[in-house]
Amino acid sequence: MVRKGPKSGRREYIDEALRRLQPVAGVDAVGMTTNAGGRMRLIVEGTPALPLQDRPIVLHSSVSEGYARAIGMRLIAGRWVTDTEPIAVFVVNESLARRYFPGEDPIGKRNPDRRTAWDYGCCRRDVRADRGRGRGPEIRQARDAA
User: What CA–CA distances, in Å, run from 146 to 50, 115, 129?
Assistant: First the structure.
């Protein structure tokens, strides 16, 4: 279900699709994702400032509240995003946590350029994609904040 148009139109379309799918017999959970359709430059609080071109690039997905449950994703720590986040909240995978937060807990970290909360809750394993290979560092963001 892909529809082009203004952001609010896409939001209404997705909301309607999720609303219609939820009551279908046999459906336990519904969710949406952009499936790592974007990339973003990672900025980590407390690390030296780097020029934009030198900041690491990670895969970025916008997701709905029900997405993790729909695919059976399990969190190691933190919490999943909701559809009504007051600020941009991110969930990072294990690969990102190991590489960019070695030996520390990224829960509550802030993106200093955007005043964005990092609310870290990663799956037990990196979600497998690309024919069984992990995609590497990945970040998921509540769809309203995208």
Answer: 23, 14, 22
Residue with tokens 């946590």: 97
- Dihedral of CA 58/64/67/69: which sign? positive
Query: What distances in angstroms separate CA 127 from CA 18, 23, 44, 77, 113, one per listed residue?
Result: 22, 27, 22, 16, 28
Distances in Å between the alpha carbon of 44 and those of 39, 55, 81, 99, 107? 16, 9, 19, 12, 12
- Across 13-64, the runs of DSSP E, i.e. the strands, are 38-41, 57-63
> pTM for this one?
0.73
Q: Kindly report, residue by residue over 32-57, the tens digit of the pLDDT.
A: 888 877 888 888 777 787 888 898 88
CA neighbor of 1 nearest in space, from 26, 28, 19, 24: 19
